[in-house]
Write a structure and sequence with these properties.
By secondary structure, this protein is low in regular secondary structure. It is built from 1 helix and 2 strands. Helices cover 12% and strands 4% of the residues. It has a two-stranded antiparallel sheet with strand order 1-2. It is globular and about 45 Å long.
């Protein structure tokens, strides 16, 4: 049995289907953000040095913009929302005006 890989945009969380291999300059078909960026990479980790699990990567200033990192591998499956965005959603719900 072949396992189907599912890819999701880090920004809009919509599923992305690739008809051909992803290029460095490709954007999300749903929201338009760059896909070849740190936040879509399986090595991205806010708690790691340089926010990357790969120890020999260069420092990248904008984690949401396309870059030339040779270690990039698109994260398979949905990534858990980071604690900051999770806390923001909870705060917004708490102080939501009716």
């Amino acid at each position: 049995m072949i396992e189907e890989k599912r890819y999701f945009c880090h920004k809009c969380r919509q599923e992305i289907v690739f008809e051909v291999k992803m290029a460095r300059t490709d954007g999300c078909p749903h929201c338009g953000v760059d896909l070849h960026c740190c936040k879509n990479c399986k090595y991205w980790d806010v708690s790691a040095h340089n926010q990357c699990k790969e120890h020999i990567t260069e420092y990248i200033t904008d984690r949401e913009r396309a870059n030339y990192c040779t270690f990039f591998e698109f994260n398979v499956g949905e990534r858990e929302a980071d604690q900051t965005s999770s806390a923001r959603v909870k705060l917004d719900a708490l102080f939501k005006k009716k």
